[in-house]
Amino acid sequence: MASSEKFFPRCVSLLTLPLLFSLVGLGFQGCAPLDQRTFDPNAGKPPHVQVAQPMPPKKQPPFLQVVEGTPESDYAGPIEKATKIALNRKPNVLFIVQGIAPMQNTPDKQAQTLNNLTQNLAVPVTNHIVAAGARPVQIDMRVTTDPTAHQAMVRVNVR
């Protein structure tokens, strides 16, 4: 018996041992040591801040809307009826009376338009709300300019 046969079985010769070790070595080359990225691939990376886009405010239709030029006799009854319904549902409701005027060419014309809107439309609407049973402290009145408005109007919202 040869000396090499003493140390190695018959199926394994000196030529197959390097081949066997290289195959076993290839199997271990694909393994990576365990570290923090083994379980979390983003570990150790700087955070990526994502800023959420703000949601546009929902356009809720107004509770009431009166367009300039509407006769007072046409809107007086519906305003008082709607005011009574709102007060029955919530006695401490806040009525937001907002006059909206279109843009004018000059600041003087704009001031005059806002003044006319207040005197001729916003105040009468507010008076009908008070006549229906709301206290003056429950009314918030404002007058603004809206470049998208084509004609003056008063919107009443409730909160």
Overall mean pLDDT stands at 86
Please state how the strands of the largest beta sheet are arranged side by side.
Answer: 1-4-2-3
Strand content bin? 15-25%
Under CATH, the homologous superfamily of the largest domain reads OmpA-like domain
What is the rounded Rg? 41 Å
| Weakly predicted, low-confidence segments | none
According to CATH, the fold-level topology of the largest domain is: 60s Ribosomal Protein L30, Chain: A
Straight-line distance between termini: 105 Å
Helix content: 25-40%
- Secondary-structure element order, N to C: HHEHEHEE
Looking at the overall shape, the CATH architecture of the largest domain is 2-Layer Sandwich
Shape: elongated
Most strands sheet: 4 strands, mixed
What is the CATH top level name of the largest domain? Alpha Beta
Please count the helical segments: 4
The domain tally reads 2
